[in-house]
Amino acid sequence: MKFDKLKHDKSSIRNKLRKISTINSAVILLLCWLLLSSTSLLFIKNYEKRNLELIGSTLSTTLTAATVFADSYDARNKIERLGNEGMYASAKLVTRDQMVLVQWIAQREQTGWFSRLLREWIYHKPLNVDILHADAAVGTLILEGTVTGAVSFLQYSFMILSVGMLCVLIISLMLSEFLHRGIIASLRTITSSIHYVIHSGDFSLRIPGGPIREFQLFSDDLNSLLMEMQSLKASLMRDNRSLAAKALSDPLTGLANRSAFSARLTQRLDQPDNHERFALLFLDGDRFKSINDNWGHAAGDEVLKAIGSRLLSLASEQDVVARLGGDEFAMLVSSRTSEAQLQQLMQGIHNALREHILITDNMPVTTSVTIGYAWSQPGDTVESILERADMNMYKNKRKNRA
Fold first, then answer.
1. Residue 21 in contact with residue 176, Cβ under 8 Å?
2. Which residues are in coiled coils (predicted)?
3. Torsion of the alpha carbons at 208, 211, 212 and 213, rounded to the nearest 10
4. Is residue 327 among the annotated active site residues?
5. What is the CATH number of domain 258-401?
6. What's the whole-model pTM score?
7. What 3-state class would DSSP assign to 285?
8. C-beta neighbour count of 67 within 10 angstroms
């Protein structure tokens, strides 16, 4: 559809090439027409002049006796006979004594502007032929040439020449259109491919080569550019995924961070068709500050990573383990739906954290966490369920201190 519109667009390369071909063919044919017309005119001029000279020479010979004896009747008959056959436009026979024996003018000689200009161009002046008798001039025959035959010949010649040139122009345009198809097809392939890439963002497309060397080089350059853009797009997508993962994960433990955990919790609470309850566990370290104070922050980081790893090993695939910050952890538990199952999980957490954690110089330390939990309830919000779990955690922490 797009290229159908381009066919009628005056600025399209198809119409530009057509215009160039038309102008080029028209100029060449016009020059050929002018050359052939000029050649025809020169040929006609020479032919008519030589023909008039031949007629004058022949007629002067036949008029010798009539001129010598001043026989105007015989002279007129001979002059009129050839004149009526269209050999000349006018004839005048004058004796040596300047007596006009015969003066004849054609009745049907053409008088239009073209005939007049043509006659003036071919015949600058009347043809004077001496009538000789015994090697002496006894009179003069004055002839004015006719252009009736020349006009008819030129009219038909110009008409045939114009029609022929028009046919040649049409054939030339059709041939140019046929020869331009390869160029148009190559450009159409390139432009349609670029159009598809721009609108789809699919840089894996490759432009096929063509028989024209320049277009082949252009296609190769475009394919190289598409390959670079495809590689750049893939790199950007990897970087974006990496940044997205980093934005939603804790850089130390690799667990989900607070933002990711809140998003998952919101998603779970916003599922109206999910009637299965879940539990939210809030975990807070008991002796983390003393570990930092006694063995340094590097040791504290090792402890945090070990806690995250052990919590993750106890969670199921549908559960979410997150580090909220510092020594605070949380678990969104969907795999346990009963109180007994949840208590079993919390006991497993306490048992796992009682195992030694190796820190600097393979120094073993132990740690523990206080857990508070809350079951989901209808109408819960993120804030409400977090608040219940947090309150239960602090309640348990005060109980453990007592």
1. yes
2. none
3. 80
4. yes
5. 3.30.70.270
6. 0.47
7. strand
8. 26
C-alpha pair distances (Å), 364 with each of 162, 296, 360: 109, 14, 9
Q: How far apart are CA 13 and CA 20, in angstroms?
A: 10
Tell me the C-alpha distance between 254 and 268, whole Å. 22
Structural tokens at position 260: 């990711």
Which residue out of 97, 327, 380, 390 is catalytically annotated?
327
Pair 352, 310: CB distance under 8 Å? yes
Q: Which amino acid appears at position 239 of this protein?
A: D
pLDDT tens by residue, the chain, 402 residues: 444 444 555 556 667 777 877 888 888 888 888 888 888 888 888 988 899 889 989 988 998 988 888 888 998 999 999 888 888 888 999 998 889 999 998 877 666 787 788 888 888 889 999 999 888 899 999 998 888 877 888 888 888 888 888 888 888 888 887 777 777 777 777 778 888 888 887 878 787 777 777 777 878 888 888 888 888 888 888 877 777 667 788 888 889 999 889 989 998 888 766 667 899 999 998 878 888 878 888 888 888 999 999 999 999 988 999 999 888 999 999 988 899 999 999 999 999 988 888 887 778 888 889 999 999 988 888 899 999 999 999 998 888 776
* Residue-level length of the chain: 402
Q: By the 8 A CB rule, do 13 and 186 touch?
A: no
Residue with tokens 């109180």: 339
Could you tell me the residue ranges of all domains in the chain? 13-153, 201-241, 258-401
- Out of 3.30.450, 3.10.50, 3.30.70, 3.60.21, the CATH code matching 13-153 is 3.30.450
Task: Give the type of residue at 21.
Answer: S
How close are the terminal C-alpha atoms of the chain, in Å?
82
